[in-house]
Amino acid sequence: MPQITRDIALVAESLRSGGVAAIPTETVYGLAGNIYDAGAIDAIYRIKQRPSHNPLIVHLPNRAALDTVAKDIPALALALAERFWPGPLTLLLPKKDTVPDQITAGKATVAVRVPNHPLTLQLLASLSFPLAAPSANPFGSISPTSAAHVAEYFGDDFAYILDGGECRKGIESTIIGFNGDQPVLYRWGSLAAEDIEAITGPLQHITHNEQAPEAPGMLLRHYAPDTQTILTSDVVETVAAYADRKIALLRFREPYQHASIIYQEQLAPDGDLNTAAAALYAAMHRMDKAGADIIIAERMPDHGLGMAINDRLERATHA
Ligand code: TXA
Ligand code: MG
Question: How many Å lie between the centroid of ligand 1 and the Cα of residue 92?
Answer without folding.
Answer: 10
